[in-house]
Amino acid sequence: MVTAIAERERVTLPKGTYTYEDYLQLPNDGKRYEIIEGVLYVANAPSFQHQHTVHQLDRQIGNFVSEHTLGYVIPAPFEVHLSPTSRPIQPDITFIRTERISAHSLQIFEGAPDLIVEVLSPESIRRDRVIKFTAYEAAGVTEYWIANPNARTVEVYILAQGEYASLGEFKQTETIQSQVLAGIEIAINSLFA
Predict the structure, then answer these.
(1) What stretches of the chain adopt beta strand conformation (E)?
(2) From 73's CA, which of 36, 51, 119, 142 has a CA 20 to 30 Å away?
(3) CATH code of the domain occupying 46-190
């Protein structure tokens, strides 16, 4: 997941030159393709642990957002177009405030979502911690969570003056804090199988 398509699957385009039009030509083979700063990435089917954590976060964030009529929580696959060179990106979970949704956003969201959550898997560590971290920060995603099923932690980053600052690394019996979803209470122990 971390590297561009494996050599046996590599398309003939040079690294860093992939476009959304190239993406539209890729096979519909059940893999998750993303283009970040012109580089094509592919992910195979995620593990049980990854999907369990995504489901728990999606359910709990979704319940909070729904109860407070804040917007929409969308799990992958869903296309986010951060910029002309970073599209599509398919975060594990995307939160968008109601006032930012238009009829066009129902198919694709263009711009920086209010909150993105990525759940680490062994193959996605570099991509989620470095490549996507940098892309989300540059695009202006207000809050970014990195859930780590192996360490049983969730790191929360808030955009401050154009850079991410850590709001905290939550673990064990702690409860996640959020600025974008002020008042949410998600027990870390409830997220991991």
Answers:
(1) 32-36, 39-43, 71-75, 79-81, 93-97, 108-110, 115-119, 143-148, 153-160, 163-171, 175-176, 186-187
(2) 36
(3) 3.90.1570.10
- The dihedral over CA atoms of 111, 115, 121, 122, expressed in degrees to the nearest 10, equals 70
Structure tokens at 150: 């192996």
Q: Which two tokens stand for residue 146?
A: 């990195």
User: pLDDT tens digits, residue range 159-192?
Assistant: 999 999 999 999 999 999 999 999 999 999 999 9
- Domain ranges, ordered by start, for the chain: 46-190
> What pTM does this model have?
0.90
- Asked whether the beta carbons of 142 and 115 are under 8 A apart, the reply is yes
**Half-sphere exposure (CA, 13 Å, Cβ side) for 24?**
3
* One-character DSSP codes across 13-34: SPTT---HHHHHTS--SS-EEE
